[in-house]
Amino acid sequence: MISLFGLIMVLGIVVDDAIVVGEAIYVHRQRGDGPLRAAVEGVSEVGMPVITAVITTIVAFLPLAYIKGTMGKFIGILPVVVIACLVISLVECLFLLPAHLSHLPDPNGKKGRRKSFRNLAARGLELFVARIYTPFLTQALRWRYVSLCTAISVLMLAIGLVRGGIVKFEAFPELDGFILTANVEFPNGTPPDVTRQAMNHIEAALMEVNDKVKTGSGDPLVVNRMVLCGLGVGEDPGFGSHLGGMYAILLPSERRGIHSKEIEVMWEEAVGTVPGAKSLTIAGMSAGPPGAPIEVWIQGHDMEKILAAADDLMARLRQFDGVYQVRSDFSPGKNELRLALKPEARALGLTVNDLARQVYAGYYGEEAVRLQRGRDDIRVRVRYTAEERSRVSDFEQVRIRTPDGHEVPLLSVADIRFAPGYSAITRTDGMRRVAVSADVDSHRANANEILEKLAGEFFPGLQTDYPGLYIALQGEKKKMRESFSSLIRGFPLALIGIFIIIATMFRSYVQPFVIMFTVPFGIIGAILGHMLLGYNLSLLSVFGMVALTGVVVNDAIVLIERVNENLAEGMPFVEAIQNGGARRFRAIILTTLSTVGGLLPLITEQDMQAKFLIPMALALAAGVAFATLLTLVLIPSLLVILNDFRRLTWRMIHGVWPAPEAVEPARKRREGRLSDEAVAAPEPAAEVLPVESRQPDAESASRTG
């Protein structure tokens, strides 16, 4: 499933480089170049930006290949699929695509009816650029600091949406599955009839919910059901007369019209309290690794304190709205006699081991002799008679032998009390452990907010009341820690790698910072996309944001490269930016539409399997769409702001204000040689004169400084 999702997700990304190459070749054909020359010049113009864009995308997906924990096993195949597709698409767009496009007819030739729609769309896009985008960009460049402040305000607003709890975070998105399970557990030794009666009650409660809920298609909610007595259901079923389980098959989510989580809550309310039951668990299908939304481990050496603390925690969890099925994994066993050695017993030389060994030998026997009869090994054990072992009152008459051979009454060396035992003792890191877990209805509460409130208000007081206890957050919280610990190391390395790649291409350490400025704003788009479509952020959303960093910079790379080429050709600074934006507008819009369009079918899919992956696709699509607006408006504004600082620095050093383009390093790219573009350009020679006329000005400004 993850491999298929990777192919679907990369559909819109792999065509981006082909769109940029194809658009560059098309522009050269419009200028009158021949088919072969247009193909060569188009690839030469955008080849390096395309290679850089693909490499940055690959670097951004690399951290996903090194996610640790169970989640890493799920998501590890995704970057492998994406990177393989990107590498093949790069080869195709640089070699095969130009060969195909070199055979296209002349776009300036006679237009027939078949081309009318295509020409109309192209003409409409050109009019939009000329009449709407370019004037708007001119105003944005004029009010560039207002544009920057507006973008920063939107960034702060998006952060506030997350920190304020308006856009909530959950480890894994809730699946609207079609299977529900119910498990009931009674104390060991419960008769099967009691378990059967409880399962009949649980089944009747389900049918009550079935009669109450009206589905979207009008069909019955419950398609089928199966009741088991003596056997549980789910991941760790178990068996015994004290266990019962039930499977319920529901209508598919697209025909049901109600989330399976709501049905779980309604079913639990309809069941109510099952007399005598130790636990009742109703669960649905879940996404990601197993683990409850809330799971807290209480560890220590004193079991009495651990159990008391667990009871307090469960009582506190039940006070939260939307928290249900609060339970503990502690299961009391059968009643037992517990012996504690008195202080005076140690004066007689007795130890706990002596006491345990002699009591065990009296009731379970101690090997006295071993006989060999043929191939059989006969072991003879000595213990009390059956009659003596059958009465609890006789236990007090047991006598304990001291190391010096004297026998003393049991009651004189040990305290005896009657208490329930433990069916199982779980230890972690050498300490006893009890796990308290609970489910959360995401429509009414958020597990992360509840855990934060417990960590800030409840856990410190709990550790004060019960000293010596250790509290650890497990379940989904543990999975998040494992994944985020990998991303904390991998994501900064990916950003550094992207920066180095961009800096190498532009031969600048400043312009890459301008391009990297689009990364946080791409994350803004991801957050806003989740809010608009009603999704909570999840771990898959974070993975999508990590991959987004390599995608959102691609358009900025192509745009800034065009601006640098315009400056190298001698174009005035502001005109170079306006021309670069207009020149790359079509390619940027088409790459965005292809990326969003490729992910849109997955985002709108209602299938249960797709629900798990939608947050990642949504983060990519919404982030790319929002970052496109910033690339077309904010990046040019940042370039002008950067130019302002360069001119200010020049003014402070040399004492005069230079021309805007005089302080741009990109203007020296073609210094000392005549470019092919200047020779082949159809513009009149008067258009090129300012290049020569401005150069002396820059030199005279330098001499004056």
Automatic annotation (TrEMBL):
Q: Where are the transmembrane segments?
A: 46-67, 74-97, 143-162, 487-506, 512-535, 587-604, 616-642
- One family name in Pfam for this protein: ACR_tran
Q: Which domain of life is it from?
A: Bacteria
Q: What is this protein called?
A: AcrB/AcrD/AcrF family protein
Could you tell me which Gene3D superfamilies the record lists for this protein?
A: Multidrug efflux transporter AcrB pore domain, Multidrug efflux transporter AcrB TolC docking domain, DN and DC subdomains, Multidrug efflux transporter AcrB transmembrane domain
- Give the coiled coil ranges: none
Task: Please provide the record's keywords in A-Z order.
Answer: Membrane, Transmembrane, Transmembrane helix
InterPro entries xref list? AcrB_DN_DC_subdom (IPR027463), Acrflvin-R (IPR001036)
Under the GO molecular function aspect, what terms does this record hold? xenobiotic transmembrane transporter activity
Please note every region of biased composition (Low complexity): 677-692
SUPFAM superfamilies, per the entry = Multidrug efflux transporter AcrB TolC docking domain, DN and DC subdomains, Multidrug efflux transporter AcrB transmembrane domain
- In its keyword annotation, does this UniProt entry include Transmembrane? yes
Native species: Desulfonema ishimotonii
